[in-house]
Amino acid sequence: MSYQRLVESHNRTTYSDNIKMVAQQLKNPLVDAVTVTHETGEAVSVADLLGKKDYIEGEDGSRRNPDNPTPNSRRFLLKPGVIEDGEYIDKDLKFNQAMDPTSNLVKNSVATVQRGVFDRILGVKKKSDGTFGIRSGGIYGAALEGKRGQTKVQIPGTSIIAAGSTGLTITKLRKAQEGMEIEDFGLEEEQQMFSIISPKQKTDLLEIAKATGTALNQFDLEQIKTGKPTTLLGITWLFSNRVPHVAGNRRIALWTKDNVVANFWQELQGDMWNDTSAKNMPYIYTDAYVDATRAEDAGVRFIDCVEG
Question: Is 0.70 topped by the overall pTM?
Answer without folding.
Answer: yes
